[in-house]
Amino acid sequence: MKKYVFRKYNERFIDLYRLEKNKIKKILRNNFFIEHVGSTAIKNMKGKGIVDIIISVPKKALRAAKEKLIKAGYIHKISGGDNERIFFEKDYFYKKKIRRVHVHLTFNNSSTWKKALLFRDYLRANFIDAKKYENLKKKAVKLCKGEGKKYRKLKNSFIRRIISKAEKFYLKKQRPYLLRI
Fold first, then answer.
1. Does this model's pTM top 0.90?
2. Measured between alpha carbons, how far is residue 1 from residues 4, 10, 49, 78, 128 in Å?
3. In CATH, what class is 12-172?
């Protein structure tokens, strides 16, 4: 599967997320939260077409959850994680095409969890910034030529700026930004 290709939004992304969510529910069984994040979680946003899922578990359950996901066939990628997030990817066939899912495993109330939901929810509510992000992603796909590190670097400052705007946006509205924990 070519990972750095810019694709149209597809309504099936929601179905792909639900299918993966159900698989993960069977693997982890209980005591976790799961959300659809990334471009495929934002209606009509073009992007790479990779379904991103973030999972939050109690901190003490992180290692066990990681092992269960590995045992179930999710490929742990050291390069995609950080000190709050363990990163996995998995390819599978869906309707005769290879699809990819990225799974971001973190612990309850981590800044990774909060920022992912904040970013997603803000872009869902703010069309202009969502379009700017889409255009940036399109440009990044062209410039990075398949280099993941370069692709992420091209997006990082925009993402930080949007998260900052989102924090102010939701504080001003005096409503929580849907942390679900």
1. no
2. 9, 17, 11, 20, 30
3. alpha beta
* Token pair in block for residue 115: 């920022």
The residue extents of the domains of the chain are 12-172
For the stretch 142-156, pLDDT in tens is 887 767 778 888 888
Token pair for 160: 């930080």
DSSP letters along the chain, please? --SS--B---THHHHHHHHHHHHHHHHH-SS-EEEEESGGGSTT--B--PEEEEEEE-GGGHHHHHHHHHHTTPEE-GGG-BTTBEEEEEEEEETTEEEEEEEEEEETT-HHHHHHHHHHHHHHH-HHHHHHHHHHHHHHHHHHTT-HHHHHHHHHHHHHHHHHHHHHHHHHTT-------
